[in-house]
Sequence to fold (347 residues):
Amino acid sequence: MVKKVFAFALLISGLIFSSGCSEEKAVSEADMSSKSRDVFAMDTFMNIKAYGGNADIALSEAEKRILQLEDELSVTSETSDVWAVDHSSGTAVDVSDDTALIVNKAIEMGKKTNGALDITLYPVLKEWGFTTGEYKVPDDNTLKSLLKNVDYSKVSISGNKVTLPKETEIDLGALAKGYTGDEIMKTMEENGVSSAIVSLGGNVQALGKKPDGSNWKVAVRNPFAPDTDMCIIEIDDKAVITSGNYERYFTTDDGNVYWHILDPDDGYPADNGLVSVTVIGDCGLDCDALSTALFVEGYDGAVEFLRSDPSFDLILVTDDMKIFYSGGIADSFTNISGMEAEVIALD
Ligand code: ADP
Ligand code: MG
Fold:
């Protein structure tokens, strides 16, 4: 629905070459021709542009990898790892290296964000209808009873074996696309592609710089007018990942709006003062986990996180229509909205 339209419209005005979570590489100026591929997967329109190297092969390999990750990570496909874990009735399940890596990251980020990121929210998300589009507002008692089984620290993982308590179910939707971006970039590099950019719904990830050596320009959507852009940032070799309340939501007859990022404390849509959070960093998986978690935590929690880990940059939009961005992107940030924008003060 809304999400897909917004997602597809995301502006990518540059290309980057990123090595996902690993080291940078030099951009070859030899081959400037670009190849492009559209893929629909994970409920999202994805577009990949690749420059140089064996771009055609790289794109085909990336498409295969995306479909493989979708098969492993989908919460609704009966052959996925996540399905097996969710239907394991408390027994240990062997999962792929990808799934194991994401589950480990989800637990680590759950801890780092005081439980704001909680992959065991899935039964609550189902109750709201966010998994099917058959939306409804659950009653308080139902939410309270479902929340008894929500606690990411009950997920145990040892090697590739994941064990959940009987009533607990997981969903990796808050991290899957970020990891997919990293893996696409790996595929590009393996096939000699020197510069590439991928749009996965509201997420953008770049490998290196544009083939002409300049930075990529990436637009971030205006959460108050999601068919328009709010700001442009210039990046190279980075992921730019946004969680916003406009990405998936429904409105009830009384005019209340409910969105798809839930607060694990009460099971209701997180409403802690932010309408969108963009995280910019080297690793798509980390940025995706954080964008969801910091949306839940709100402005103060997000700023506190930035203080503890300044290796990320943030763009926060508050519900009173102000933009706050971190000092690390001050030189590359252009506000094209009418909203006030200021640098986040860390002292
Ligand atoms: P999107 O995938 O829509 O671009 P996010 O990365 O923010 O955006 O992920 C949101 C998805 O994560 C939701 O659709 C839901 O499946 C799941 N989710 C919602 N709230 C939480 C939460 N607090 N912790 C972990 N996962 C969540
Ligand atoms: Mg996320």
Remarks:
- Residues 174, 243, 288, 291-292 surround magnesium ion (ligand 2) (CB under 6 Å).
- The chain has eight helices and 17 strands.
